[in-house]
Amino acid sequence: MKNYDIVVIGGGPAGLAAAVSAKKSGIDSILILERDKELGGILNQCIHNGFGLHTFKEELTGPEYAQKFIDQARELEIEYRLNTMVMDISHEKVVTAMNREEGLFEIQAKAVILAMGCRERARGALNIPGYRPAGIFSAGTAQRLVNMEGLMPGREVVILGSGDIGLIMARRMILEGAKVKVVAELMPYSGGLKRNIVQCLDDYGIPLKLSHTVVDIKGKERLEGVILAEVDSNGKPITGTEEFYSCDTLLLSVGLIPENELSNGMGVEMNPVTSGPKVNESLETNIEGVFACGNVLHVHDLVDFVSEEAASAGENAAEYIKGNRTSSGGRDIRLNPVEGVRYTVPVTVNTARMDEELTVRFRVGGVYKNCYVSAYFDNERVIHRKRQIVAPGEMEEIRLRKDQLLKYPDLEMITVKIEEA
Amino acid sequence: MYDVIIIGAGVSGAAAARELSRYQARACVLEKEEDVCCGTSKANSAIVHAGYDAEPGSLMAEMNVRGNEMMEQMAEDLDFPFQRIGSLVICLGEEDMPGLQKLYDKGVANGVKGLRILEREEVLKMEPNVTDEVYAALYAPTAGIVCPFSLNIALAENACENGVEFRFNTAVRNIIKTDGGFELQTSRGVFRTRCVVNAAGVYADEFHNMVSEKKIHITPRRGDYFLLDKSAGSHVSRTIFSLPTKYGKGVLVTPTVHGNLLVGPTAIDIEDKEGTNTTREGLDQVISKAGQNVKNLPMRQVITSFAGLRAHEDGSEFLIGEAEDAEGFIDCAGIESPGLTSCPAIGERIAEIVKEKLNLKEKDDFIATRKGILDPDTLTKEERAELIRREPAYGNIICRCEMITEGEILDAIRRPLGAKSLDGVKRRTRAGMGRCQSGFCSPRTMEILARELGVSMSEITKTGGKSRLVAGTNKDTL
């Protein structure tokens, strides 16, 4: 069995940033395991621009953004294996992986960084009735076909769901010569970034129908059309609002699910809201020395934040290996998301282990205008930040300062909530 | 001139073909779809019934009990997954006990072994997720579950290996009686044969009625189902049936041989023999009935829903035998539930009839066994490592949900009657059958299919015919 200090599961943006940061923090024995034929993960198929505005202050395409991290990983001589599937990780951090050249092999890791990313929700999870013809794709699968294989999924497109990949694919399909008839969104608001709605739908005159869903799928062999209907406030289709759209392609952009089969298998405790691991301020799971970052932890909208989060996970894993992480004198403070705040990452903060400043990320459950993002230290409101608009499609954050927390020696819980103005 | 032509490559047709391949005869299976197992056989409850449902003395009862008895040996010979997990029919109140007793009596009369009526406590001990309302249950230890795809494919492959021809994409349009046989006009030319086996599922009435004045009528009876993720697969460990009551027949909840949970079906009579679409009403019905017998069903874990059509004959009975007024035309019609269970017995019965009719002699080189696609999960770590050394494709995971390797997919494509489409690969290997429902693996599987079949990616179909997965290449219409 081989031994490494840190094994990183996944060579996408999260895995790369985590590995780079761990290496820079002084750990040499690092291995990235990537199941695809190249590093970079899903960014490789995201050939549109808009990446890196926060990190590099320039607009990069997905592959360009990935390349910056791949180059760093190469310069730092970080070891990686491609076309390698991790089959299992034991509670004791034995990683079982497989590829064509080495067959089935085991690695003993001292620390593991989970960076497996997420997958798309499929039609089945939505219980859309109708036939099951060819021509129904998740938006990401269609993106791969168009951008990596050069294949057109179809000519006349309806998109269900206004997640970012769906919006990006609306524009992409138009640019490749397809007609995009409509984007239907079940919720009364879009799940995607505002800038994507403007740049991908509005600029191309593609209608976005909010509070609409697909209620029937026509076509026995290849898709021939879908029926859209308006939904009521409970998401139930309203009889009489049905409208037929002829199309040969239906793209689904209806949510992303962190891919935590391996985490579950090793006994990592999950947050049912994010479907990702529960982590502390070090992005460490309930298993000591097992860290998580990127979309496997919670689904992000911007890769810049993935990189930032992953760098922190990598640094913390390095500190763990070096034995520098001490909890002595610190205490675990629980983060409590309520009233409009669906979850927080992390779920606990330890004042001894935290950096001078800690970013707490969260999502809201609905659209709130002219509101405040507030944090209560036990019963005292300490953070009260005015926001013009917050929406589920855009991740929010608050920053906790260590010196501030130390002023509250008996602090047990920080409650994060949205308050109406 | 063929000795026998079988119309339909579902489980009945494939079982008949396999049993007939024991004899010296020129046999051919005509199938309108591009693959075996494309109709009723691919979308059903995947249950091996014990045999207490059918009326004593009926052919259905006889075939069911015999089929159930044969299934174990057949699964061993032909290498497909079958598990005798037992079943429970749940009775919710004392007032329904006569109904439960009647099922028990029918089962005993049909020769079902090991039937017992269990009291509430024993049921809950066996199945803690059965509803707390349970009053009693009929326990049938001989009931089981099977992979219907593997069963169908195994029968067909074995028949093929023993010399039966298979013609796909060949739809029979008309059947004409001729001297000493029949002429079958198809979408791919004319076929002549001495005997016809009519195993055409929901279409069997149409073919029967082409040659016989004693008309039969088959109604497609649709059943809607939900398939749940493997994380829900151990919610129950036996098949849980409802006791049919005045409120109708309930839905069943069962584990599958691959560890998923299956919930369904509805029973909705329709006209369209290709009407395999689920409907809102159908799916809602399953959801509302699913909780009657099993509590806390994790319906959020649904990974797909589908519908299948049962071939319901007006008399609710299997019609197996020579048509009275059409010598040499052997019906295998009205094969609805428990048709899957019965298929080994149905194949045996059809073969007997044809053998008598044509005075067939047994082959001395019949191959009775067949090996399925290797499942690397059944190997030890050492064996698996050795396999990858020998065949590196087994080290390359294509479907990450079901952990299916390129090696398995290559085997599925290259073997006799191999897969030609995405669904063909899926039914043979399970690639694309997991929780992401082929989102991740479909482009990769398409690539392998294109390479192996020597066609371009844009020619790859989901399931033959016009079901092409992509419309062309980028910008080709700009």
Helical residue percent band of chain A? 10-25%
- Coarse structural class of chain B: alpha+beta
For the biggest sheet of chain B, the summary is: 8 strands, mixed
Helical region count of chain A? Answer: 8
What portion of residues of chain B belong to β-strands? 15-25%
Structural features, described:
In chain A, a hairpin with a 4-residue loop joins strand 6 (85-89) and strand 7 (94-99). The model of chain A has no long low-confidence stretch (mean pLDDT 94). By secondary structure, chain A is an alpha/beta fold. Chain A is globular. Chain A has eight helices and 30 strands. In chain A, strands 1, 2, 5, 6, 7, 8 and 22 form a seven-stranded mixed sheet that branches. In chain A, strands 10-18-12-13-14 form a five-stranded parallel sheet. In chain A, helix 1 runs parallel beside helix 7 (303-322) and helix 4 (164-175) runs parallel beside helix 5 (194-201). Chain B is α+β, with helices and mostly antiparallel strands and 478 residues long. Chain B has three domains: 2-41 and 149-218 and 316-358, FAD/NAD(P)-binding domain; 83-144 and 219-311, D-Amino Acid Oxidase, Chain A, domain 2 (2-Layer Sandwich), CATH 3.30.9.10; 376-477. Helices cover 30% and strands 23% of the residues of chain B. Chain B has helices spanning 11-20, 59-78, 97-110, 120-126, 148-161, 204-211, 280-290, 339-358, 381-390, 406-414, 422-429, 442-453, and strands at residues 2-7, 27-30, 47-48, 82-83, 87-91, 116-119, 136-140, 144-146, 165-167, 172-178, 181-186, 189-198, 218-228, 239-242, 252-255, 261-264, 268-269, 302-313, 319-322, 329-333, 397-399, 404-405, 472-473. In chain B, the strands form five sheets. In chain B, strands 1, 2, 9, 10, 11, 12, 19 and 20 form an eight-stranded mixed sheet that branches. In chain B, strands 13, 15, 16, 17 and 18 form a five-stranded antiparallel sheet that branches. In chain B, helix 2 crosses helix 8, helix 10 (406-414) crosses helix 11 and helix 10 packs across helix 12. The mean pLDDT of chain B is 95. Classes of the chains: A alpha/beta (421), B alpha+beta (478). Chains A and B meet through strand 8, helix 3, strand 11 and strand 15 of A and helix 7, strand 18, helix 9, helix 12 and strand 23 of B. Strand 11 (151-152) of chain A pairs antiparallel with strand 23 (472-473) of chain B.
